[in-house]
Amino acid sequence: MSPPRFLTLADVAEVLNTSSAQVYAMVRRGELEAIKIGGRGQWRVESSKLEDYIARAYTETADFVAKHPYVEDDSATPTTTEAP
């Protein structure tokens, strides 16, 4: 059985391990592509668009890490000195 083509915002929230409100905000900000269907305006996210979003998030995270490398605080690490 193939996965569904469209996901509810709750489904997306479950995949991303976040809240439906957070997913709704991502959709409204244009970060995650979605469509609004039906008379009550229910939102749906195409599975491929969610996968595209995840791939972009990995790329953006890698760029962030490259530009902001983690540097350990040297004061927390004991150093040894050798006598001359």
Instruction: Give the class from helix and strand content and strand pairing.
Output: alpha+beta
Reading the helices and strands in chain order gives EHHEEH
Largest sheet: 3 strands, antiparallel
* Percent of residues in β-strands: 5-15%
Count of helices? Answer: 3
Query: Order of strands side by side in the largest beta sheet?
Result: 1-3-2
Give the integer mean of the pLDDT values.
91
Proportion of residues in helical segments? 40-55%
Your description of this structure?
The chain is α+β, with helices and mostly antiparallel strands and 84 residues long. It is built from three helices and three strands, in the order βααββα. The chain has helices spanning 9-16, 20-28, 47-67; strands at 6-7, 35-37, 42-46. The chain has a three-stranded antiparallel beta sheet with strand order 1-3-2. The termini are far apart.
List keywords for this structure.
45% helix, 84 residues, elongated, alpha+beta
Short description:
This protein has 84 residues and is α+β, with helices and mostly antiparallel strands. 45% of the residues lie in helices and 12% in strands.
